[in-house]
Design goal:
This protein starts with 10 loop residues before the first helix and ends in a 19-residue tail after the last helix. The chain is an alpha+beta fold and about 375 residues long. The protein has a 7-stranded mixed sheet with strand order 2-3-4-10-5-6-7, with helices on both faces. A two-stranded antiparallel sheet has the order 1-11. A two-stranded antiparallel ribbon has the order 8-9. Helix content is about 35%, strand content about 15%. It has 11 helices and 11 strands.
């Protein structure tokens, strides 16, 4: 076991409430100090504030120290030569030149949206970018344009394949979104592991235990200590294993970038680009049915889900993504909770703590 003892966190003492605008400014400033261009830092800050606002703290401000270290060590291209290559009426590749992931993916999405609006369908692969963050951020932009979205991306080997003891695939997330006629869209965003790696980072920052169904130690034994994680577990065993393979094919093999066990480590070789892949698949539902009817039926779906009698221990049935949207509205009004240590780092003059370089995929010394 790790020497680091876990503790119960008194959140009233361990967090700082920050307004969205203040958090955005702190993150943008830190990334600019690391060397990122203002326009790129602004987009990353928007993305991370969105994640924290939704309660997805695993993809929010907790990532800034890592991003800053990789940027400062030239593992992100500061002046990327971005270009879009149209490969067919409904297909294209966006060349990311290992630019900062959120900015590169957001630029690629603009082409995908235009293509889907023109032709009804768009499949745009983004090749050679860094970590691109939470899928929900992009899906909100897609649904704002009355489009259905499916997006997938790679991550480095962290998950044991079903029946194995050694990692091969990443947490390889899948995101899906559909617009509604009233209220918010349906947004579904999940890792194909039981939990995303960022959830482990979040538990480490708070020094709290994790469920024993999330991960195993280096011997393949389930662990509740986030500091002892040696590999993550796929959701639902063979089913999650199959899904993460699908994501790897669509965002790795299909784009000609490193795949499976060959995907670069998040923390190793911080001075080199990661060459990751990300794919957007967009559909205009208006090319298949009346767009207004489609959106009305999505709204009806949400309403009918709400009317289903909840199981014991539940107060209500929520549609996918609804709880994150409720949290978003609350935090936008009341402020975003940020772990105290992260906040102190953000307001400090320190660019990064130089703690990630050379570590394993699990942010521990090899």
């Amino acid at each position: 076991m790790s020497d680091k003892k876990l503790k119960e966190v008194n959140y009233m003492n361990e967090i700082v409430i920050v307004t969205p605008s203040e958090l955005h400014g702190l993150i943008k400033n830190k990334l600019e100090k690391a060397g990122l261009k203002s326009e790129h830092a602004d987009e990353v800050a928007k993305h991370l504030v969105f994640a924290d606002s939704c309660g997805i703290h695993s993809h929010g401000a907790v990532r800034v120290d890592y991003y800053a270290e990789r940027i400062a060590k030239k593992g992100v291209t500061i002046e990327p030569k971005l270009s879009f290559e149209k490969t067919g009426p409904c297909t294209g590749i966006f060349h990311g030149d290992n630019g900062i992931g959120q900015y590169v993916a957001n630029e690629a999405l603009k082409y995908a949206i235009d293509m889907a609006k023109e032709n009804g369908v768009a499949v745009v692969g983004v090749e050679r970018l860094s970590h691109s963050g939470t899928m929900a951020y992009y899906l909100n932009k897609i649904t704002d344009n009355d489009l259905i979205g499916l997006t997938v991306c790679q991550s480095d080997p962290m998950v044991v394949p079903y029946g194995g003891r050694e990692p091969y695939y990443g947490t390889n997330p899948i995101g899906f979104g559909a617009p509604a006629s009233e209220g918010l869209p349906i947004i579904f965003d999940m890792a194909t592991s039981v939990q995303a790696w960022g959830k482990i980072l979040d538990a480490r920052s708070k020094n709290v235990e994790i469920p024993d169904t999330w991960a195993v130690d280096r011997k393949g034994v389930p662990t509740t200590n986030p500091h002892d994680v040696g590999a993550l577990l796929p959701i639902s065993g063979p089913k999650g294993y199959g899904l993460m393979m699908m994501v790897d094919v669509l965002s790795g093999v299909m784009l000609g970038v490193p795949f499976g066990g060959h995907v670069s480590s998040m923390y190793d070789k911080m001075s080199e680009g990661r060459d990751l892949g990300h794919t957007f698949i967009l559909i205009d539902p208006g090319k298949f049915t009346d767009i207004n009817k489609f959106k009305e039926n999505i709204t009806r779906t949400k309403e009918e889900l709400h009317k289903i009698k909840p199981a014991e221990g539940f107060q209500q049935v929520f549609y996918p993504g609804e709880t994150s949207q409720i949290i978003y509205e609350k935090y936008q009004k009341e402020g975003i909770p940020v772990e105290k240590g992260i906040y102190e780092y953000l307001i400090s003059d320190i660019v990064h703590y130089n703690k990630f370089g050379g570590q394993s995929a699990f942010a521990s010394k090899k």
